[in-house]
Structure formats: C-alpha cells, structure tokens
Amino acid sequence: MKKLISLLFLLPILISAQHEETIKKIYDESLSNGHVYENLRYLCKEIGNRLSGSPEAAAAVEYTKQLMESYGFDTVYLQPVMVPHWVRGKKEVVRAINSDKHGTFEMNALALGNSVGTGPEGILGDVIEVSGIDEVNELGKKVEGKIVFYNGEMDPTIINTFGAYGGAVIQRSSGASEAAKYGAKAIIIRSVTNRQDDIPHTGSLRYKALINQIPAVAISTNDADKLSAILKEQKLNVYIETHCQILPDVLSYNVIGELRGSEFADEIIAVGGHLDSWDVGEGAHDDGSGCMQAVEAVRLFKTLGIKPKRTLRAVMWMNEENGLRGGQEYARVAKEKGEKHIAALESDSGGFQPLGFSMSGNENQKTKVRAWKDYFLPYRVWDFTQNGGGADIGPLSQQGTLLIGLRPSTQRYFIYHHTPADVFEAVDRRELELGAASMAAMIYLIDREGLN
Amino acid sequence: MKKLISLLFLLPILISAQHEETIKKIYDESLSNGHVYENLRYLCKEIGNRLSGSPEAAAAVEYTKQLMESYGFDTVYLQPVMVPHWVRGKKEVVRAINSDKHGTFEMNALALGNSVGTGPEGILGDVIEVSGIDEVNELGKKVEGKIVFYNGEMDPTIINTFGAYGGAVIQRSSGASEAAKYGAKAIIIRSVTNRQDDIPHTGSLRYKALINQIPAVAISTNDADKLSAILKEQKLNVYIETHCQILPDVLSYNVIGELRGSEFADEIIAVGGHLDSWDVGEGAHDDGSGCMQAVEAVRLFKTLGIKPKRTLRAVMWMNEENGLRGGQEYARVAKEKGEKHIAALESDSGGFQPLGFSMSGNENQKTKVRAWKDYFLPYRVWDFTQNGGGADIGPLSQQGTLLIGLRPSTQRYFIYHHTPADVFEAVDRRELELGAASMAAMIYLIDREGLN
Question: Shortest CB distance from B428 goes to which of A31, A159, A412?
Fold first, then answer.
C-alpha cells in the first residue's frame, strides 16, 4: 500500500518534469537556432507590405507555402477565399489653404482603408473639429457641407494600450458615416496612436448602409495638434484629394501547414496570424511577426522531434485588416468538414516580449490552461488573467474552440501600427523568438494534456 | 463590540484604497504630463556622454542640480568625490594584417575602459583564440608574446540577459591580467552582447596588482566571428593601436535633491541612478534613464502635493562605470553623519518596461515589500522574486538599508549597453514613464508604511 501511494504521488511530478524539460528545449532552440527572425526579414524585405488582393499578398501566400513545405510539414495547402480589393492609388493630399500664421501647408496623411476617393477634383471645405462621435450627434446639421475633424486622443493612462486604442478607434471605424448622416462632405481623423509625431496611421472604416459614403483620411498627431491650434484662432479651409478605389473581389488564400497527430489526429490545434497587412510599411509587427511565429512554433516540433498527439496547424489567415474574410472562411470550412478545433492560438499584437496569454472559452478550458502558468514563469510569461482571443480565430468560437491570444508587451505597439514605420527593424530578435517559443510551449501543453 | 470589529476590518481596506488612489495618480501624471522623457532628451542631446572626469560629466552635474532646483526640492546639493580620469584618446585601430582571404582589414573596436594604451607605435602580434579564462590557464606559457582573443559568448538561453552577461563579462573585467600573467602582450575580446552586429561594446577592466598591464580592446561580434573563422584556416597577425591614458583623479560630485519628511525626517529613502556614462553614445539607457527617472519620482511627489513623512532623496551617483567612487563616498558620508537610510532604490538596468523590483536586505524588509505587489499589478509590475539591488547603492548594505533595484525587461538591454548605439532614440517614452512612476509608487509605499 505504501508503494502505491508513492507512485500516485510521483506520477504527476514525473509528468511535470518532462513537460518542463521539453518546454526548456523549445525555448533554447528558439533562442539559439531560431528561424523566425530571418523568415520575418524575408517577408518584410523581399515581399514587403501585402494588402489583400495585391500582388504582394499573392507573393506572401506562395512564400509561406514554400517555407512550410521546406520544413517538411505533413501537409501544406491553400484554402481559397475571395477577398476585397481596395487600392490607395496616388498619394493623398491634405492641404490647409488659408492659415493666417502658416499660409498654405500640407499635412502628413493617409486615406483610411475601404474609404472612397475624392477623385482628381478633390474636396475643399471648412473644417469643424469634434472630440468624438457624441459631439457630431450634438452638432447635427451644423456639420452639413463641412469637413469634420475628429481629434479624440488615446487615453495615455490606460496601461494596456489596446484598451486606449479601443476607446479611440471608433472615430476611425464609424466616424465617416456618423458625420455623413448629417451631410458632412469628408472627415479627417487624428491618427489612432499614443505618440506625438509626424506619422499618419491608416486602418479600415466601415460605411453604414444607406448613408452617403464620404472620403476619410488620417493625419499625424503633430498635424492634428497644429490643425486644432489654428481652428481655435480662425476658420480654416482644407483641400483633400484621395484616389482610393474599391475594385472587384480577388481570389486569395489562407495558407495552412499541418503536422498530423499520432493519437487524436481529428483534434486540431490551430496556431497563426494574419498574412495580409496594410499597404504601407512592411507589416512587420502587424502581423508578419504572428505569421512567422506560428510557422516557427510548428517547426520547433519538427526540429526537436516532438511528435504531436493531436494535429497541429500553422495558419496564415488572409484579410484580417479590411474584411476578415480568411478567418470567416476558415471557420466555415471547418464546420462544413466537421473538423474539431479544440484550440486556436493567435499572435496579432506585435512581435514584442510575451507577457501572457488571454483566453476566450468556457471556464473549464480556461481553468485548465491557467493551471499551466508555472511552466511559463521561468520565461517571464506570467499573465493569464485577460479575456480575448484574436480577430481571425474569433469565428471559431461558435464551435466551442478555446481561443487564445499571445499577449506581448503593448507599450510600443501603437508607434508602428498601420504606418510606414512598421518595418522589420522595429522588431527585436529576442522578443520575437520568445513569442514563438511561448506559442510552441502552449500548443505543446494543449497537445499533451488536451482540454477536457 | 460588533462596531469595533467592523472598524478593525475596515481600517486596512481604507488605507489600501487610499494608497491605490495615490498610486494611480502617480502613474496617471507620469503618463499624461511626465517630464522624464524631455529631461532625458536634454541630458543625451545637449550634454551627451559623460565619463567620470570629463567636461560633460561636469555639465551633467550642473544640469541635474539646476533641474532639481527648478522643481523646488527642499535641498539640492553636491557631494564632492574624487574620481578616476581615464581617457580614450585617438580612435583605436585593430587591423588584421595577413588574411589570405580578406587581405588587410580593420575591425570595429573600442579600447576597454581603464586599459592602458599601446601608444602610437602600436602592438603587432600573432593571435591565439580562447573561449575563456580557463583555456588561458590551460595554455599557460603558450600565450607568451601573443595577442589573446577571448571569444566567449553570452548564453542566449538564459532568459534574464543579465545572467548571461554575468557569465561572459569576466573575460572583459579580468581577461587582461589573466593573459598577462603568462606573458601575453595584449587582449582582444568579443563584445559582451547577445547580438550579432558591427557594434563594439566597451566597459571596464581591472588590472591585478603586480601583473604587467597590457592593452585590451573589444571588437564587434561580427568581427569576432570573422576573426575566429580565419584563425581556423591560418595564423593571423593583428595590429592594435590605442591611445588610452589614466590621468590624475579629478574632483567631481554626487548630485542630491531632497524633499524633507514631515514626521520622520531622519529616516531617508534614496532613489537614484548613476550620472556618469561611457564615452561613446549618449548614456541613454545606461544610466541617463535611471537618473531622470529618480528626479521624476521625487518631482511627482512635489507636483501631486504628496507630502512625504520620511525624507526622500534623489541621488545621481558619479563614477559607477569605472570606479564606483560616488556610491562608496555616499555610503561613507552617510555613516559618518549617522544618517539612517531605511531604503535605497536604484534604476540601472535601462529605461525599458518595468516588470518588477529585486531586493537585497533582511527577510522582514523583503516580506513587507512583497506584500505590496498587488498595488503594482495593474501597472504590469509583477515580479518581486529576484535578489539584488544596484551597484551604487551596494555600499549602503552594511548600514542595514534595504536595497531595491527596478527590474525592467532585459531583452533589449545588451543591444545598447556601453556602445555608440545607446542614444536617446533607443529609449521608449511610455516605458521610461512607467519606470519613473513605478519608482515613485515604491518610495511612496515605503514612505507611508515604513519598513519595520
């Protein structure tokens, strides 16, 4: 009897030591011989930005497919999906005409994604500044014929910058239609960032049905401050010229690479990021990092000879930025085929130092994952308290899949987000490697322990 | 009786809510209206690097004194201290002479701090590569007349990069004397960094008494790899020319600014960093950040009208990099005057996102501070498990002072450490501000709660 008790006590400890050891191998390999940084370099420097429907997006599909084939994943395939095809066209002009102090001057601007263009004739109008959508509703018909300038800021006191982003981004996503319903002719928004600089931030808007679609641009925070200061002194005319167009949908793909499970092959663990990016910069943090980390996570299994019991899938979703078609199609096909996704892990918060994992799922699933926290503490990954998964994996939630988001440090993300500054050089090698290893360690534990 | 129990239960909760509120004000002010970033800009861009004994070090003393005076601290004063005066002189030359493949080529090099120079005649010698001091001891007299090339690397698998630094830095600090005792004529070291690039990292060495003092230089990791590859193929002659000199000691100062305590003025809480830096780059992370954060921590009390019960001291210590004279003198004077330092908090690990505090002191003190962890969790400062304080506050430990180190993320530190790349632009505003607020919050709690 004594012997049996000892065994019962020893068993969980033995399992735990084995997991600890494997996880250490994962981190060691990622930090010593990692591929993720050089793979990201290729994606950023050889292909560059890759908005849905662009030739570069097609190149990124081909590159990641070949990359996973070169690693000898069991199956690598493309999942077709029709995506929107918005093009920016010729460089935007946002020009103040009649400033007493500054005369005529140009602002650093980017048209918002999905927005209509002014065409070559441009739009000229009086500018009226508002702090947000509430103020537009208060002003009502007073914005008619005007260019509405949304100057709401991200709240710097919110420590998780994504929280502050969530508070400010509504003027970008909904501001155009909210102003158009009172007859505004265009909108200018303060870039959604917590930094004071000359860099404009693009990002998508959504036009509401049955409301006039008006042009929309973002200007840099320095320009927004300048514009606001002038508007306190005088009426100001601004000229906007954008050449954006929405072209017919284009055939594109989610890129999928699989290691087949040895015991429970029908249980799928997906790990990924989105392959598309905005059409400026190189989509390095958003979300080249997440894609290359997902491929690396699965490569680490291959290289270290860790045979998964369940089926691991690295997925590069297409079209997160301006449609989410890839994520939706992936979930639709999964349901249609009767695939069972037990978990989906997304990295889409930049390639910064990983600090935790957020989750969206039932309490049993979350409790099980939270119990693994001690495996991650040696790697400084400590926060398992937050809610949420990721945009692309969101559509899987209806299938009972546990959604997990890699949560890196958020302090520097909005320097780069949706800007020309989101380039390879903005990503730190060790931080990126720690993220890839953390993802591999998480899918390893799910693979070994399951989620029941 | 019932009433009394309720009160007893309520009391600690009320106190806690007040602390929470004050700490939130501290972080809000730092993130919304912080001065630390602009103050660091001045120190880096207007003054620049500031090795002990240099005119720039004197400028930094004057600047920080005036800065604290401008904030209306109760007392601002200079504490005299004699410091070593090492000068680099003319740019180093480290040149490979007879590579079959590359011919003659220059390496990116910096003389090590405190090292002697070769003089204009230089030193020419055969290079012998070793992985560390152990190998020098094995080789013994075989290194006689040679240039010893220490090529030990930082271990990338150690998550806290300071741990990996500690393992590799001994070849920089002790390598020269260890090689000289067998008759080596100079040493070259692989820069102590975990990055592969062209940037050489300086830093101090210590010559052992009664051993010949030989010149010592660091080369970039790319050059170290190149050198090592060539040495596998052929014998290689390298020419080294350095013009370093150790001049007579110079009068310098620790800079001290005080807010006097209202209840326990004789109990001192010191918070600081070191004002000197290496003579390359701008000493932005090392340790302009720590100095400006310490000033900001005390300014936050002034600005928010938080009256300290105990005496708060912002201290900018001089000469951490190549002598530690400032830290030693500060502790000596404190002892001589019978000052009672209950705690000293140093920020000298870069201006990165703060993740925790390390401590060195007795168990009672540490337990008390650890109990405050929940106040910091909303600000993502979570790790109170590590040991250690800081170099400059180290000499206070003999007086029973609790030593505390701000522990930011360490992943990016050794990109910049002791290099021309340690410039203002390498510091992130929000990360720096979070660190300053975390320091202010910690000294606030010590001030209010004491450490008994």
Answer: A412
